[in-house]
Amino acid sequence: KTDENGKQVPDTIFLADNINEENLQYYARYAVKQVVDAEMDGMDWDFEGWSSSNLLPVIKECYKYFGPEGKWPEKLIIIDYFGGSPSSDMNPYCDYLIRQAYSGQGTGAAFASGWDTKKQVMCEAIHQKPNGGNVESYAAWEKGNKGGCGGYSIRFNYNQDRLGVPYGALRRAIQIMNPAIKK
Predict the structure, then answer these.
(1) CA distance 31 to 123
(2) Which listed residue, 26, 124, 141, 156, has the most CB atoms within 10 A of its CB?
(3) Verdict on whether the full-model pTM lies above 0.85
């Protein structure tokens, strides 16, 4: 198989003997092409299954196209993770780092060390947690100095609130991060 320049490339990079920086960069360029061709807003790399040493060359290569100096600077580069966070060496090349707290094993405020707090987004498994779980705590953390907070399966928060307010936990989280102007 050949790339756009006629250079021989492997059919896959997922075999242990094919993982090297050149193949990882090729994979990144392939992913960039998929995002651009589909007219998406950017890419979200799931850190599960990657090592930081393998993901870093991919993120750096994507940044050449989607970063401030790239051809498509408006496109986002996002990494999400569950459990251990990726190396902060990727911080300069990412727009957001999203912590998935989508199960009882993954909740709690374990923010990524060495990462800019303005890039960090904490997400809660609302469908598994009564009253929205930790989403309000995530909203209050580093108030005004974080990427935000979010929820997974928010439809389950519609009628789950202890005060009887539809989407109550989400509404309170929004107010914590962006209070209504009082007239």
Answers:
(1) 25
(2) 124
(3) no
